[in-house]
Amino acid sequence: MALDRRSFLLGSAGLALAPQIAAAQALSADTPELYPGERALYAAAAKEGMAVSNNTGPTWANWAALFRAFGQRYPEVTLVYNDVGSGVAVNALDRTRKRPQIDTIYYFGANGIDAQKRGLLAPFKPVNFDRLPETAKAPNGEWFTIHQLEVVFIVNKKLVSTVPTSWADLLKPDFKSTIVYLDPRTAGVGQVLTWAAVLAHGGSYDNLQPGFDYLGELHKAGNVLRVVGTTPYAQFVKGEIPIWINYVNDGLRAKFVDGMGDDVEVISPAEGTVAAPYTISLVKGAPHPNAGKLWLNFITSEAGQRLFAEGFVTPAVPGVAIPEAVQAKLITHSKSTLLDLEKAGAQLQTLTQGWAKVAL
């Protein structure tokens, strides 16, 4: 399925549905509800006192804005979060499955399918669940998509004299020891990057070898500076990374929000890229189930989805209004393929093991 992110967002903007509700307004007896039953769920969540949101790093996908808005609306529920990487998050939950310490878990969609197969998730259908496409959710709500992100090249032009525009360009000697990306064994974005390399070089869900061959060549050329375990956003903004293969929202944030301006170029590779659905789940045996549901409902509400859009992240719920200021800053993709979660999930072990053989 080909999808142009800018067109998708512009189309969504034209379908804006409900009037905007000030999510930052603390919920009280006189405050309009974001959805029917919100006040009763908040009362139950307040008795639990906290929600533990696993793998939602504050520098990732505009989560910090959602944390702030949630805290303002529900001051009697403390939100606790961390950032560990999709693969690490699922393995850690599996180890503690008899007594989980987290309420919700967020990850690249293929890892969500993996977590469901391991029996780690509870069914829950949040607000706007029915508006999600069938391919964007498990039928009973063990996982559901909340946004999508595309892989791009984020280039610091102060450190690189020539801006690469294609996967082929990255193989050139000009880019020796310049490229940083995340490890597919620990982070979903590393898996998505590998899928982008596979599909851009003629591979398929059944034939990953073209992508492995490309990445192997990239490493042998000495162009990969390092592979990291968690997002190096702060290091990029500090000017420590010449080229970061990562999601588009971080590049736009560095360029337009965090002061790097024209020093940053955000490039969608000419051969094509992929868009990755990211999902979230209620954990089976969660210690604070009502607080977890309150958090999940907020994320999938129009207020929560709009906060993703404000951080250059494509919302999953159709029809969410996109601010004009955001629309004007989005980039276009010559070709972007929305990953099939079932097919990508079925190849999770093949992908991580194949990558390790050529990259380590």
Automatic annotation (TrEMBL):
Q: Which InterPro entries does the record associate with it? A: TAT_signal
**Signal peptide annotation:** 1-24
Query: Which keywords accompany this UniProt record?
Result: Signal
Q: Which GO terms describe its molecular function?
A: thiamine binding; thiamine pyrophosphate binding
For whether the record's keyword set contains Signal, the answer is: yes
Protein name, please? ABC transporter
Cellular component (GO) terms are: outer membrane-bounded periplasmic space
Q: By its UniProt entry, which SUPFAM superfamilies does this protein fall under?
A: Periplasmic binding protein-like II
- What GO terms in the biological process aspect are recorded for it? thiamine transport
